[in-house]
Amino acid sequence: MYLCATTILSDIRNDMEGIRDMLSRRSHELFIIGKRKTVEDVMELWRIFLDKLSQNEVRALNKNIDQYNLVVPMMHGQMFHFELEKEAAKIWNKRQQQNEGCIMADSDDKLDEVERSAMTGKNVLFALRNVFSALCSSRTSNSDQQR
Predict the structure, then answer these.
(1) Exposure of 123 in the CB half-sphere (CA atoms within 13 A)
(2) Does residue 147 lie in a domain region?
(3) Which of 29, 57, 42, 54 is nearest to 128 (CA)?
């Protein structure tokens, strides 16, 4: 079966965009859920979501990337596998910045440290757990100050 490199490439780009959209939507849902649930519950939901995504969509995408790399003869035309952890960290940090208005200034140092560790490719789940902890502590501090 002959496959056109441009067709495979457009499928790959569409799949990547679809995965990024799914990550963005789920991170938004989890920020909303995070207001009603514990940090551990939210982190467990995020971990389950990432596991399912890596087993299904990301595996299929990386298989297509492998197929594309076999068709494209030039090294500079080759593609790297989709790295779910890096993409998840980027999207999570973007969502966090969009929701920055609800975070107190005293928790900014904690969040900056978490962002740095997430961006260096360290354990994303650990970094996200710390972000939720900082968010929860800032909300608790806000409610204590209002009383």
Answers:
(1) 6
(2) no
(3) 42
- Render 47-58 in DSSP notation, one character per residue: HHHHHHHIIIII
pLDDT, tens digit, for every residue of 45-82?
Answer: 888 999 999 999 999 999 999 999 988 878 788 899 99
Range of the domain at 93: 5-142
- Structural domain contains residue 113: yes
Amino acid (one-letter) located at 81: H
Whether residue 86 is contained in a domain is answered as yes
Rounded Cα distance between 49 and 55, Å, is 10
Q: Determine contact, residues 86/20, Cβ cutoff 8 Å.
A: no
How many domains does one find in the chain? 1
- For 64, the 3-state DSSP assignment is helix
Dist. CA 46–CA 36, nearest whole Å: 15
Q: What is the pLDDT of residues 90-136, one digit of tens each?
A: 988 888 787 765 543 334 444 555 555 555 444 556 666 666 666 65
